[in-house]
Design a protein that fits this description.
The complex is a heterodimer of chains A (536) and B (243). Chain A has 536 residues and is an all-alpha fold. In chain A, 74% of the residues lie in helices and 1% in strands. Chain A is globular, with a radius of gyration of 23 Å. Chain B is built from twelve helices and no strands. The radius of gyration of chain B is 18 Å and the shape is globular. By secondary structure, chain B is an all-alpha fold. Classes of the chains: A mainly alpha (536), B mainly alpha (243). Chain A binds chain B through residues 61, 63, 96-97, 100, 120, 122, 125-126, 129-130, 132-133, 137, 140, 143-144, 146, 149, 153, 156, 160, 164, 167-168, 171, 174-175, 180, 535-536, and chain B through 136, 138-139, 142, 149, 153, 156, 158-160, 164-165, 168, 171-172, 176, 181, 185, 188-189, 192-193, 196, 200, 203-207, 242-243.
Chain lengths: 536, 243
């Protein structure tokens, strides 16, 4: 009975074939939703089975597996898929190519399931590439739009590069370790990691190739441009891209977690690249003028953060992060249509819960409050967190994860901050309270869920990753650096959203203007691509 | 060495570049058939006289391949495209082990036969196999759009089509050296760029208002369905070889 779960990757293909034979438009979403509900139920059953029996389900000659990682991700992808299909039913109704859209959507979901459930590097390679081509056809769905096709081409180029890195990594893995079976390889890597340090440059090369392949598909700087520039795709596709497709980098690195145990340098590079991406993309998110591109950069920043988590050895937290972020971002995209609709009907900005709770007219801003706010949003949460951690005991305190949690809370806090204040333009005590509460809530959820996930996914081996990924930086130093980053971040946020536009003769500071210009131009990276790589 | 030179002659399009390109003895619609026949002869030769291919021959084939890539990116004609793509993939046919080379060659020939037949459809429907002004076919001629998308996805080396699987099978079973990296990377990206360029101008784009679009006839659809079935069979073979 439990083996039925292994058919999940093939059900979307069956749905696509079935839709291909349907002529009535209204039947297509019905078929898609009915069968994807079955997939979701099967996924949930698989999760229940794995959790209750503590056994993984192998099938198709060991090529597919429903293990702990699948138990978490398959229901997530299935439910996300269900929501996206339901949303697309009406959203895509008037678009030419309704049938084509549903067929392609099912193909990409099939590729994602296959990627999550593969237990063989060849199957993983096929799923990895299948996802790229399905994504290209979905991004270019609006075939008449020149820019959509051009950006689709760029996306494909980055993904093709990721495919190449991935294929070479797979070949080298086979030549070095003599197997394609992921379970067998993971055991081999774990044994090797326990027998002492490894100096084989080939293993490092494999690790780097997998890391770079993951970074490209997860839109990590400097491979990020494909994500912010593909916002022209239909909204359900954007939701899928930001909530599902960009996560494959994190999924791949989790599948390769035991290989990365052998390569601390790869983890350190992942941390640095992730950190640069998280900070740079978050700043760009605030600076760019296009709202959709801003959302794109927000995702890039979150992916940077996810890779950074991997770089610190917090593989399970990366999975938790990518799921939470996926839900958050998908809801933002899917909600956008109804918000625009409301905005068209109402003269004012449509009211949201945050608006009703915190709206308060404030004619002029008092500059002293700024320092009070920075103190509130940075120093206080850090003190609360460290205090609680120390109270709970030394064993509970993994420094790497603490750093992650603080930084994550900072990033999430920034986003919440922006969401609230863009609506209300107020700084009432309610808002401050809500922000601190959200910060603490994020902090604790992240810590507890992260630990539970770590135990579920990696059991006793979870701690090994932290040991390998340790950066050997003192705790005080890291906390101080983090504090500095948070203060700068909050200050920037404040400047972006609270300073009124000066009236009359005002010449901006030249250096500030240059920095702003650089950020508004997205670090000139897009210009460079257009100028030097005229391929599409 | 003689076998190496014969293979180079048969696979890399030497007869075309030496005799047919300038003289126009053969029409471009016939060159693909001739080139395909030469490749099949090459496969038989490599099967009969299995031996290690010398590096200079691979280098010459690679240079010819780069020239074919340049030519493929210049042309807007589906007929010409078929044999340029065939010549472009020649280094792989020479470099791979015999079995892998034959399998990859067959899948390439089957896919290119499909493109060739689409060229004939273009010639019949629009007067020539030139696709330049016949854009946006996905919207107006969905069957033609679907068929071309299938063929060019296969040529761009994407699974589940056999070209990608047999390409992977070929590189997996060949010896890794510096030339290997260079050839694999160039051919991997070259095929992709050619396919993307054609797709951007045919499958995608705004339909041309001055063109009367005609979709693929039911009889032709059946032929293409047969080609896709053959590709499916080759995919299964490729998957079996890989696993």
């Amino acid at each position: 009975m439990e083996k039925l779960v292994l058919f999940i990757p093939f059900i979307p293909v069956m749905i696509a074939i079935l839709i291909g034979f349907l002529n009535k438009k209204e039947q297509m979403p019905k078929v898609a939703i009915f069968f994807s509900s079955l997939v979701a139920l099967l996924g949930l059953y698989g999760t229940y089975y794995v959790m209750s029996t503590d056994e993984v389900i192998y099938g198709f000659g060991g090529y597919l597996v429903f293990n702990e990682l699948s138990a978490i991700l398959v229901p997530y992808v299935a439910i996300l898929g269900l929501v996206i299909r339901k949303y697309s039913t009406k959203y895509m109704w008037d678009e030419p190519g309704y049938k084509r859209f549903f067929i392609l959507l099912n193909f990409i979901f099939s590729a994602i399931y296959l990627l999550v459930m593969s237990n063989n590097l060849i199957i993983l390679t096929i799923a990895w590439q299948l996802m790229s081509i399905s994504l290209y056809l979905l991004i270019s769905f609006n075939v008449e739009s020149k820019s959509a096709i051009k950006n689709g081409g760029w996306t494909m180029l980055v993904h093709k590069l990721a495919d190449l890195f991935f294929i070479i990594a797979v070949i080298l893995t086979y030549k070095t370790f003599g197997s394609f079976d992921l379970a067998e390889l993971s055991q081999k890597w774990l044994d090797m990691s326990q027998s002492g340090p490894i100096d084989d440059p080939m293993i490092y090369a494999i690790g780097f190739l997998f890391l770079f392949a993951a970074m490209m598909k997860s839109a990590i700087i400097p491979f990020h441009l494909w994500l912010p520039y593909t916002s022209e795709a239909p909204t359900p596709v954007s939701a899928l891209m930001h909530a599902g497709v960009v996560n494959v980098g994190g999924i791949l690195l989790n599948k390769m977690a035991f290989l990365l145990l052998l390569t601390p340098a790869v983890l350190n590079v992942a941390f640095i690249m992730g950190l640069i991406t998280a900070v740079f993309a978050s700043i760009l998110m605030l600076a760019v003028s296009d709202i959709k591109r801003s959302l794109g950069y927000s995702t890039v920043g979150q992916m940077g953060y996810m890779i950074m988590e991997v770089g610190l050895g917090a593989f399970s937290l990366a999975i938790y992060h990518l799921m939470v972020h996926g839900i958050f971002k998908a809801s933002l995209f899917l909600e956008s249509g109804s918000l625009i609709n409301q905005a068209r009907k109402e003269p004012n900005v449509p009211k949201r819960l945050s608006h009703e709770l915190f709206w308060e007219e404030k004619p002029q801003y008092n500059s002293i409050n700024m320092f009070r706010m920075i103190a509130f949003f940075t120093v206080l949460p850090v003190i609360v967190f460290v205090g609680v951690k120390l109270l709970l005991g030394e064993d509970f305190f993994h420094f790497n994860s603490a750093t992650l949690i603080l930084a994550f809370a900072w990033l999430t806090g920034t986003q919440l901050f922006l969401s609230f204040f863009e609506v209300s333009k107020a700084n009432s005590p309610k808002v401050i309270l809500a922000l601190i509460s959200s910060f603490i809530l994020v902090l604790f959820t992240y810590e507890f869920v992260g630990l539970a996930l770590e135990h579920f996914l990696y059991g006793e081996h979870g701690a090994l990753f932290y040991e390998v990924a340790t950066l050997h930086v003192s705790g005080t130093m890291t906390l101080l650096m983090l504090l500095a980053i948070m203060i700068v971040g909050w200050y920037f946020t404040y400047k972006q959203h609270f300073v009124g536009i000066p009236i009359g003769e005002h010449k901006p500071n030249k250096s500030k203007w240059r920095i702003y210009k650089m950020l508004a131009k997205e670090g000139y990276i897009s210009d460079m691509y257009v100028k030097y790589f005229k391929i599409f | 060495m003689l076998v190496d030179l014969i293979l180079l002659f048969l696979f890399a399009g030497i007869p075309y570049y030496v005799f047919f390109e300038k003289t126009k003895i053969l029409g471009k619609e016939k060159i693909f058939i001739l080139s395909a026949l030469l490749v099949i002869v090459g496969m038989i030769v490599s099967c009969k006289f299995q031996q290690e291919i010398s590096t200079p021959v691979v280098i010459v084939a690679f240079i010819a391949s780069l020239f074919s890539l340049y030519k493929a990116n210049k042309t807007n004609n589906l007929y010409k495209l078929t044999y340029y793509i065939l010549f472009f993939n020649a280094p792989l046919l020479i470099m791979f082990n015999t079995k892998e080379s034959i399998l990859y060659g067959i899948s390439l020939l089957v896919t290119l036969l499909g493109v060739y037949l689409m060229g004939r459809y273009y010639e019949r429907s629009y007067g020539s196999a030139n696709y330049q002004s016949v854009s946006g076919i996905t919207l107006v001629t969905p069957y033609a759009g679907l068929i071309l998308t299938g063929y060019f996805t296969a040529l761009a080396l994407y699974p589940p089509f056999p070209n990608a699987l047999l390409f992977l099978n070929g590189i997996l079973n060949s010896d890794i050296h510096v030339m290997w990296y260079l050839i694999v990377i160039v051919i991997f990206f070259g095929n992709f760029l050619i396919a993307m360029r054609v797709m951007a101008k045919t499958v995608f784009g705004k339909p041309n208002e001055n063109v009367h679009y005609i979709d693929v006839a039911p009889k032709e659809r059946f032929v293409h369905l047969a080609i896709f079935t053959l590709l499916l069979v080759l995919s299964i073979v490729g998957l079996k070889e890989l696993l």
